[in-house]
Structure formats: structure tokens, C-alpha cells
Amino acid sequence: MASSLTSLVNDDSRYQKSFQLFLERSSEHQCMQDFIHNKLPDILASIGNGKSHLNVIGVGSGAGEIDLEMLSELRQKHPGVTVDNEVVEPSSQQLHNYRVSVSQKKELDYITFTWNKMTASEFEAHWKEKKMTKKADFIHMIQMLYYVKDPAATISFFQSLLDKNGKLLIILVSGESGWGKLWRTYRHQLCNPDISQCVTTEDIKNILDSKGVRYQNYELPSQMDITECFTEGDEKGELLLDFLTEVLNFSKTASPELKAGVLELLRHPECSVESNGKVIFNNNLGVIVMEQLT
Ligand code: SAH
Fold it and tell me: What is the DSSP string of 68-112?
């Protein structure tokens, strides 16, 4: 990452603002919801081995919107189960939002929540220190592996927590997405390997293939309207650009060459399509589902 640039994740409040705007401008959550309602039930059918109590771990849950939808499908697939749900989320604001939303939903009384305000690696250290032997039936990490130092090690640790028939679900941007193209081109300028990896499901599949780990995978079509990024000085456009580049105040701090190069690439046909005056960025997601290693 260019030394003059600061990673967006260093400013949680701006990160959360840009993430919210990204959700408004994209079909990110809609496409996940389609997957959760149409594909996830079959994936969850075989977990638990007939147990009446299931252990779930959500890593990087954000405000939990997607987690709660998955938990609802889990309950429909396994009626009558009780659920122990460990939430691993370092942002106190997000964790707070998640807790508020849970407190407003009476129907969630079959779930016991454990709130871990920590990163995935802190959770791993805490788990090992306490010599926990609990196994999990379902673990998910949705759009979070960008923020760990070593995605392969994180996957291995969480996979080791799976019980018999347990499943680990990962969602990241797809290698075919505009993000993949952006990162292949500007990895050195934009990505800070200490805190944010420019990692796609393509990279994860390559890691798993090289280790001979088996998985299922799905591609989820998704789009993001980035038109505002091309209006100089537009406040929302600047927030979206921060989100796309993961750089804090990208428009104001990047060199003119980098800024021009990124803006040009963002509307390149490998990243976006232009129609009716809108620039629509390819935000396709990839899903990887792994089972317990035997
Ligand atoms: N899963 C949610 C949120 C994705 S945003 C969704 O798809 O809507 C990424 C989330 O990962 C944020 O809530 C962020 O606070 C969290 N995060 C950042 N670094 C993390 C880390 N090292 N370990 C676990 N979670 C992390």
C-alpha cells in the first residue's frame, strides 16, 4: 500500500458509514438473502446429526442482519432445536446494533447469544487459552476474511472446530467480480497486507485446492451502482470510493495518477457496465462451503 495512504478500517465510524452506503447502492444483501432462502436450507439439512442442540459461530457478523436470516432458516430446517450462537465481532458499534436487534425479536428465544467483542484471531487465542472442547455445527464468515492477517490459517482454525457433519460457510467477492480486477491491477497501491487482504473466493479456492481440501462453491450475481464516484467532490461518491479502495479519504489523499487510474479502471468493461447514464460495478460474490476434515 502506498505509504501516504491510510486504510479505511483505521476509522471505524467512516468505515461503517461507507459500508451502509455500499449496502444501499448494491444488491449485496439481497443476493445473500436469495442464497439463504434458496440454497442454504439444503446445505444445513445434514448438520447436527440429529442433535436437539446446535452450536453456531458467526465471525465478523456486523449488525447481524444476515446472521439472523440464516438462523431462521436453520430453525425451519431443524424444528425444535435450541441454538448456542457465538458472535465474534470487533466493532462495538456493530455488536451493539446486533444486540439491539436481537432484544427486539421475541421469536429468538431458542437462541442463546454469546457476544465476543473481538477479532477472529483474538477469539482463536481465547478459545485455545480456555482449552475449549465445544464443537460447532455451523460456522460462517461472511465478507470478513479480508480483515485477517492469514486467511488460510483462520480457515484451518475454524474448520478444526467443526463437529461431525458440521459446515463452514465463507462468502467473499468472487474472483470474476470488478473487485477481483481492481485488486489484480492495484494490489500494491491499495492493499495493506497487515490489516486488509485483497482476497477473493478464487484465492481461497486455490489455497484449498493446493491442500486437497474439498468444498462446494456457488457464484452469486450482484451489482453496485458506482455512478456517484465519477462526480468530482460528490460526498457520497467519495464515501463509495473509500469503500471500493479501502483507503480512508481516497479522493483527497491518493496521488492524481492513482486516482485517475482507479477511476478509469472502475468503469472499464471488466469492472462495470454502463447503461442509462449509470455505471454498474460487478459485485458478484462467491460462496464456499466446507465440511469437517476427517
Ligand atoms: N457479515 C456482515 C458484515 C460484513 S462487514 C455482512 O455481510 O453484512 C465485515 C465485518 O467484519 C465488520 O463488521 C467488521 O467489524 C468485522 N471485522 C473486521 N475485522 C475483523 C477481524 N479481524 N475478525 C473478525 N471480524 C472482523
Answer: HHHHHHHHHHSTT-EEEEEEE---HHHHHHHHHHHHT-GGGTTEE
Mean pLDDT score of the chain: 95
Structure confidence by residue, pLDDT tens digits, 34-88: 999 999 999 999 999 889 999 999 999 999 999 999 999 999 999 999 999 999 9
The predicted structure's pLDDT at residue 98: 98
pLDDT at 294: 66
Ligand 1 centre to CA of 247 (Å) is 16
Residue from 29, 147, 199 to probe ligand 1 pocket by mutation (most atoms less than 8 Å from CB): 147
The stretches of the chain forming alpha helices (DSSP H) are 12-25, 28-38, 40-45, 65-77, 92-103, 120-129, 151-160, 178-190, 201-211, 235-245, 250-253, 256-266
**Residue found by looking up cell 439439512 in the block:** 45
Task: Please identify, by atom number, the ligand 1 atom nearest to the C-alpha of residue 61.
Answer: 1
Distance CA 287, CA 53 (A): 26
Mean pLDDT, to the nearest integer, of 111-117?
Answer: 98
Ligand 1 touching residue 88 (CB < 6 A): yes
Q: Is the pLDDT of residue 4 over 90?
A: no
User: Considering the entire predicted model, what is its pTM?
Assistant: 0.95
CA 5 / ligand 1 centre spacing (Å): 21
